[in-house]
Amino acid sequence: MAAAAQVVHRQGAERTTIADIARAADVPVGNVYYYFKTKDELVKAALAEHAHQLELLTGELDRLGDPRERLKRLVETWVSQRDVAVRYGCPTGTLASELDKRDEGGLDEEAGRVIRLLVDWVAGQFAQLGQPDPEGLALTLVGAYQGMSLLANALRDPTVMTRQGERLLGWLGSLPDPLATDGPPAGDSPPGEGR
Amino acid sequence: MAAAAQVVHRQGAERTTIADIARAADVPVGNVYYYFKTKDELVKAALAEHAHQLELLTGELDRLGDPRERLKRLVETWVSQRDVAVRYGCPTGTLASELDKRDEGGLDEEAGRVIRLLVDWVAGQFAQLGQPDPEGLALTLVGAYQGMSLLANALRDPTVMTRQGERLLGWLGSLPDPLATDGPPAGDSPPGEGR
DNA sequence: GTCTATAATTTGATAGAC
DNA sequence: GTCTATCAAATTATAGAC
């Protein structure tokens, strides 16, 4: 699964052959088919791998006390991974973009679900910050990330990531803090998913 | 070329076969090879077609007197084409994303050039507005477009385009006007939600 | 479970009649 | 210039020995 995720990210789903993944995992092709009946199942496994990495990241960020700090750290993580973004784009975004051009197999919806995972988590942070329209703000932040990744990749320019990352950090810093003065402190929104 | 541009946009470059394009153009496959020696040349033609459409659009917008108005119309054009973005994403952006995963043929740089065409034109408008760092603002605006297109596509939600488009229009409207005789423009603020 | 060999299909590209 | 027929290579998937 790790080999599938990496090779598919670098070459794209369509260009990647089973032999490519088998070689990366250092196993014969026949062995791959023992665990994954079709190529689509391998792509689905790559998506699941990316979803897993995302959960590891948000799980780590959740240990920070301040939602604003979590979002800032998220942006900093994106910027710190700029070299891979410049070369291959966002793993989930580029894969979603490719899979969305299919109309068979339903792999496109699978990709959408992984993206929604991130959008929902970000929206949760904005909600905890007491912001109106947290979903809209989440779409803005995640959209900015997808956009700067695509541009950095297409223009082969890592400074796109650093410059736009700075801008996003400034924006997050300018958001009003509900904990600052009056108003209900914590417990503003339920800790679980509200969807 | 028009058939190539449309089919490649809908199916992606890798998934599109010469037969697909030939069928869309209503000619036999052998005929296609008379004009385009390889499949890569067909993809390059599709890119050129998108670049041509972009030049038609900016040429039209250039006839407007106010640079700010040009940018607003650009955003409105993007939003008006939301249905195609929801289904297939931005033609140039998705193609660039796909081609950037290749390391042969140099088609990736070709895609980057088309994106740069748009970024440079937008930067020119910001420069005419007297904005500092017009290139950075252009990357922000074009990045926002690429990001909202990708999210609208992945989430199959046209309201992403309308909502984020509204936000961009508000941001453009808040920019200081250099033609107004009074005070120096204030520092730029990132495209956050108006408060 | 692992691996080699191979079947079955698709597809980029060409030959050659018209 | 247009079109049909076809080749050669690549690739998904399977069969079957170990």
TrEMBL record, chains A, B:
Pfam families per UniProt: TetR_N (PF00440)
Record key words, sorted: DNA-binding, Transcription, Transcription regulation
Family matches, as InterPro entries: Homeodomain-like_sf (IPR009057), HTH_TetR (IPR001647), Tet_transcr_reg_TetR-rel_C_sf (IPR036271)
Sample GO molecular function, one term: DNA binding
Origin superkingdom: Bacteria
Protein name per UniProt: TetR family transcriptional regulator
Protein's organism: Nonomuraea phyllanthi
